[in-house]
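I trust your eye. Have a critical look at both lines of this record:
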Amino acid sequence: MKERDGDLGLFVESFIAMAEKELDKKILRPAPACIELLNNYPWPGNVRELKNFIKRICLLTPGGSAISEALVQRELNQLALSAQVEKTTTVETDTTADHDLKNASQKAEYRKIMEVLKRVQYNKTKAAALLNIDRKTLYNKLNLEKNQARLRLGAGF
């Protein structure tokens, strides 16, 4: 999307209007600071990623309220963290001759969980239902992978 930086505001407006119709609620437009935050994010998933992000922001914004800068920043941080974990998992899988069956199974399980979470826009209740597991089990599996990713990155706890 970098080649269309000037159009980001137009995309955001359009995607908010779509989300308002889909969610049947009115959302006040974001402050210029929010648009600036969105402009600074690289959007590796391009326009589709931006559209899904705006819909999620609208879903999390109470009806009749403005999209807050704090919410946009928090969700961008989460998006960046998810991308980093996914990138780390992909690089590790590609570069390591992994013969540990348990580890390989956990990685495959985590990729499947993330795939389902993305499909249901990170609604963990829906994801757990689709995966045929309890929501608590889903949280445990996500926390296990997050902690293992921290250890791989050397971040500790």
Q: What stands out?
A: DSSP finds seven helices and no strands in the chain. The mean pLDDT is 81. The chain has two domains: 1-79, 97-157.
